[in-house]
Amino acid sequence: MTDVSTARVAPAVLPKPNDPCWCGSGTKYKKCHRGADSVEARKRGPEARSRGIRPGVISPIRTVPAHIKRPDYAVSGRPGRFFPPSEVNSADVIARMRRACKAAAEVLNAAAAHVRPGITTDEIDAITHEEYIKRGGYPSTLNYHGYPKSLCTSINEVICHGIPDDRPLEDGDIVNLDITIFLDGVHGDCSATYFVGTVDPESERLVRVTRECMMLGIEAIKPGRPISDIGKAIEAHATQHGMGVVRAYCGHGIGERFHTSLQIPHHYDPEAKTIMEPGMIFTVEPMITLGHWHHRVWDDGWTAVTADGCRTAQFEHTILVTDTGVEILTVA
Predict the structure, then answer these.
(1) Does 6 have pLDDT greater than 50?
(2) What mean pLDDT comes out for the span 32-60?
């Protein structure tokens, strides 16, 4: 599950020429972002747009056996306000994170094996729920700020936080499965985007480039360098392929807390000046679009979709900064 950044977000409906620009500059829209928005609109063809995902019926919240250790928000839905004094983790936390992240990767692989036309995302949620429990873990998303399910399933133009429901997956869809497990007192987080049946060439290209963006962001991780290096590498690759990088959601520090105060922008943000240090653990999870990076959120308060209806994909790993570079923790 992604964290929310402080980036300025454009509305789904752009301003009129003489209205103030959506970016908050105070300048008229026609003198600010109108030209850039028009260029982006010309780049986006109708083949990039999805038919439009609609909310389905959400089943009752699933139960977790009493013997499974729970995070602090499992009952109330409200995580505690404590944040670690340092983003550098102890050897004990790192060891536990390796176990939890390996389990998360296993659950993701198990869930992905069931992706096919005709299966509902609620059925995938049920399968995933049991996979967590089988490993002695709690689904981290379950009741986190009231989220009702054990994973996020984001289809086509859904950027992130899609809620599993009774909609069957259709041939040609793409779907992101976002898995987080609470195990041994820590959270392991990963996601990937999958083809449902046979998809069109643009969707194939989107998914390929998105995975490349994640890996380039991970390769940019080096102790002594600023966090901004990650987004710089990601945005450069996405731009080279004419794709947008979602700015409203970002990677995050993770460990004994699902989200720490550390944020990882996926676009180049010169203000992301935190220096990477050995022992830091965080997610790299770019959301790349075939159109613009603007987004809107459904009335459910969770489901984020592209404002222009273009498809989007996401990949995610939890990583550890080491003395020489990086270790990917979410591998089975």
Answers:
(1) no
(2) 63
What is the distance between the alpha carbons of residues 242 and 236, in angstroms, rounded to a whole number? 10
Options 3.90.230.10, 3.40.50.150, 3.30.420.40, 3.40.50.300; CATH of 83-328: 3.90.230.10
User: Which residues, in sequence order, are CB contacts of 302 under 8 Å at separation 6+?
Assistant: 147, 161, 162, 163
Which of the pair, 23 or 299, is modelled with greater confidence?
Answer: 299
- On the CB side of 151, CA atoms within 13 Å amount to 32
Per-residue pLDDT, 2: 86
Nearest to residue 277, comparing CAs of 233, 215, 321?
321
Domains of the chain by residue range: 15-44, 83-328
pLDDT of residue 55: 92
Angle at 319 between CA 202 and CA 268, to 5 degrees: 55
